[in-house]
Amino acid sequence: MEKISSITGRFVVLPVQDIDTDQIIPARYLKVTDKSGLAEGLFFAWRFNADGSPKPDFVLNRPEAQGATILVAGRNFGCGSSREHAPWALQGYGFQAVISPYFADIFRNNALKNGLLPVQVDEETYEQLVSLFDEDLTTEVRIDLESQSVTLPDGRSTRFPIDPFAKHCLLNGVDQMGFLLAEEPAIAAYEASHAPRVITTRS
Prior knowledge:
Layout: E1 6-14, H1 21-24, H2 44-47, E2 70-73, H3 85-93, E3 97-100, H4 105-114, E4 117-120, H5 123-135, E5 140-144, E6 149-151, E7 157-159, H6 164-172, H7 176-182, H8 184-193
Parallel strand pairs: 1-2, 2-3, 3-4
Antiparallel strand pairs: 1-5, 5-6, 6-7
């Protein structure tokens, strides 16, 4: 997992509430074993017509949206099933963070474990981002993980919450297993300095 300290980039807005994981990545893509192949399925029903041609009016198909690294979405993003493929698909497409007024808990946890930063902001900040995108599709924002802040083009900054352990992992580029492996010397030292708690007896 790559380290995340800050993300500065263009964003795209999908102002829809209750976007569930099946809309993010359809169930038929859950059989895919290669994460990189999931990008094509991201928002598939919204991006493509029945014949496979792209829908020109969908935001991700607009030329100005190409290269955006931040997705701004409506409230309750990632509700539905617990599929990890949802954050995988978003990352595969190129998104490094998702900003929303509220995330479904399971999606938030899956995103954090896979290196996708979920940034929860207040409704006022969300509405301002929507307005900025409508005015100029090339607008950039800065997300700073260390200070847990989002800075808008006018300089206004707002903080966002994040689990301390997840923050540590993202800043250091380790997943939960990587964190435990890094603590192996400390675990071994603890075990060496403490007597076994289970005493076996012979009959």
